[in-house]
Amino acid sequence: DWTPDIFIESTVAELREQIGNDKVILGLSGGVDSSVAAMLIHQAIGKNLYCIFVDNGLLRKNEFEDVLHSYKDMGLNVKGVDAKDQFYSSLAGLTDPEAKRKAIGRVFIEVFDQESHQVEDAKWLGQGTIYPDVIESVSVKGPSATIKSHHNVGGLPDFMKLKVVEPLKTLFKDEVRLVGKTLGIADTIIGRHPFPGPGLAIRILGDITPEKVAILQEVDHIFISSLKRTGLYDQVWQAGAMLLPIQSVGVMGDERTYERVVALRAVTSVDGMTADWCHLPYEFLADVSNEIINKVRGVNRVVYDISSKPPATIEWE
Ligand code: XMP
């Protein structure tokens, strides 16, 4: 029978055998998968694991600093790279969701490649690929069937010449969480909702600007903090906010306003392949809506997404 302890013991032994004294480079995303993969490889080879955590300017509010700290606390050898400007300039003017994904994927590879050359003699690329990623990337491969290109699957281009090591390739998400817990990784990382690689760029409909990112970060922060404060966070598979490319009329004091609309989305799911919209309590939604409209300048309307997947997807882009 599968247990996290047995998995860890045998995986760490295999990794040690496979990697020997080689150096491994791994891109951390702040998510569960890359964090657990890193900790497993770290247990096997210690300081020979070089982690890179890129700030693409599309993360949640305070995420980069907070997560970088947790990684350092975990003993990981991690370098934080501020690449916000590179991502913003490559995204400038792009509105098509797939074009945005591709631009982000391209810049990520550039930044990662640049950083990886700082690690002399690296032989391996560590990745947090889990079993459903393997399945999904196969099933969306056909030219007519590309629904959304998940840029974190398929690895980096050949020129990096690194061998790939993917210790979580056979696991489902709940198993990854069990392994992470057993490894002693903090609940704030283990229990974290999935977050897409392209980040807030696919939750801002239309073109991306740093101003829009800042607005959405505030909205998202209010929503997520409220879910945590009320104990609802752990009952939800994934939650977030979308910044819509429209304005609507409102009234504030005696003044007419004409400002942005945000949509909140929370879903329950087992693996992200199908999902139901979450029946969050009305009082909760009312409080979150009030707080957003009162505190976030430039937003005067909040709507709640009541679509399930399929036929809607979890993200709006
Ligand atoms: P959808 O929107 O397809 O999302 O229902 C299913 C799950 O995948 C995440 N997602 C992505 N993750 N790169 C990622 O790493 C992407 O381009 C991407 N698009 C969607 C989404 O957040 C959800 O968990």
| Class of secondary structure makeup | alpha/beta
Helical fraction: 25-40%
Low-confidence stretches: 139-148
Give the spatial strand order of the biggest sheet. 3-2-1-4-5
Largest sheet: 5 strands, parallel
EC number: 6.3.5.2
Catalytic activity: XMP + L-glutamine + ATP + H2O = GMP + L-glutamate + AMP + diphosphate + 2 H(+)
Enzyme class: ligase
Domain GMPS ATP-PPase: 2-192
What does this structure look like?
Helix 6 (131-139) links the parallel strand 4 and strand 5 (163-165). This protein folds into two domains: 4-190, HUPs (Rossmann fold), CATH 3.40.50; 203-304, 2-Layer Sandwich (GMP Synthetase, Chain A, domain 3), CATH 3.30.300.10. It is of the alpha/beta class. The strands form two sheets. Strands 3-2-1-4-5 form a five-stranded parallel β-sheet, with helices on both faces. Strands 6, 7, 8 and 9 form a four-stranded mixed β-sheet that branches. Helices cover 40% and strands 20% of the residues. It is built from ten helices and nine strands. Helix 1 (4-19) crosses helix 7 (173-182), helix 2 crosses helix 7 (173-182) and helix 9 runs antiparallel to helix 10. The protein has helices at 4-19, 32-45, 63-73, 84-91, 97-116, 131-139, 173-182, 187-190, 210-229, 282-295; strands at 23-28, 49-55, 78-82, 122-126, 163-165, 238-252, 255-268, 276-277, 299-304. Xanthosine-5'-monophosphate binds next to loops.
